[in-house]
Amino acid sequence: MRRKDFTAEELLTRVLNNKSQKTYWDNVRELYRRGGEETFKRCYQLVKTGTDREKEVAVDILAQLGSTGRPYLKESLQLYFELLERALLDSAFTTDLLITVLHAIRFNNDTLSAAQAKAVSAFKSHSDKYVRLGVVYALLGVEHQVAVDAMVELTTDKFSAIRNWATFGIGSRIDKHPKQIITALWNRVNDKEEETRFEAIVGLAIRKEAGIKEVIIQELLTGEFGTLLFDAIEALDDADFLPALKRLHKESQKDKTIDPGWLGKLDETISSLSAQ
Asked: 150: which of 23, 109, 116, 121 fits an S-S bond (Cβ 3.0–4.6 Å)?
C-alpha cells in the first residue's frame, strides 16, 4: 500500500510509531501536503492532552500543516507559545519537546509580536546547546529589539553552529543597520570557524562598511575560502576585485579537484561585477 493511499489517521498512527527518521519525515510531509481540519483537530488535541512524544509529533505536523495556505497558523502559534510558557514554569518539561516547539516557530515567525519574540528569547541562555540553536532558528529575520539583542548575544556562543547561524541572522536576515549589529559583526570577522567569519564579512559588505574591503582582500590572498566570500564581494559591488577574481578563475581551471559549484559561483561573481 502506497503512502498516498493511507488515510490521515493511518498516517498519523504510522508517524507516532516510526523508528526511521526518513520514514517519519516522509509521512509528516505527506500530512503537510494534505492539510485538513481532521488532522489539525487531532494534532491540536494531542498537544493538549498527549504524552510528550505525542506532543512532539503533533507539533512537527502542525508546523507546516496545509503547506502554502497555512490555514491553521494562528491557532498553532498560540499552542506553541502556551508550550513555551509551560517550559519556563515546569522543570519536567522535556528538552526534546522544547526544541521541537522552537523549530516549529522557525517556520511561522513572519508575524511574531515583540512579546512572542521575548518569550523565545527567554531560552537564549539554556544549558542545552540545541535549545539555544532552536532560539536562533526561531528568531531568524525577526526585527524586534528583544530578538536582535538575543541574536547578538548568541553570536558569541561557545557552540560554533550557534555563532554561525546567529551571525547569519543579524548579518543577512535583518535589514536594520544599527551600531549594535555592526559591532557584533566586526567581533566575528576573526572567528576561528570559517563559515561564521564569512557570514560576518557578508553582513558587513551588505552594509558597505568601511574597512571590509581590505578584510576581503586578505581572505582572497589566503586561497582558502568558500562561496560566501563571493557573496560578500557581490554585495560590496566593487569592480576593483575583478583582476584578482579573473586571475583566480584562470588558475582554478587547471585544478580538477575544485568543486564545480564553487567555480560556478566565481563565474557568477565575475559576471555581476563586469556588468557595471
From this structure: 121
Check if the beta carbon of residue 12 is closer than 8 Å to that of residue 31.
Answer: yes
Q: Measured between alpha carbons, how far is 110 from 130 in angstroms, rounded to an integer?
A: 22
Task: Please give the Cα distance from 237 to 271 (Å, whole number).
Answer: 11
Model confidence at 177: pLDDT above 80:
no
Q: Residue 4: CB partners within 8 Å, gap ≥ 6?
A: 30
Domain boundary, last residue among 108, 127, 160: 108
Q: Which of 256, 201, 257, 232 is nearest to 245 (CA)?
A: 232
Residue 104: give the domain boundaries.
Answer: 1-108
Find how far residue 80's CA is from the centre of its chain. 18
pTM of the predicted model over 0.90: yes
* Mean pLDDT calculated for residue range 221-227: 90
Q: CB neighbours (10 Å) of residue 33?
A: 12
Residue 155, all three cell numbers: 553570536
Average of per-residue pLDDT across 117-138? 99
* 52 and 77 share one domain: yes
- Same-domain pairing of 15 and 73: yes
> Alpha carbon 57 to chain centroid distance?
21
**CA dist 195 → 85, 168, 229 (Å):** 34, 9, 10
CA atoms of 48 and 50, how far apart (whole Å): 6
The C-alpha atoms of residue 241 and residue 248 are separated, in whole angstroms, by: 11
Contact 99, 131 (CB under 8 A): yes
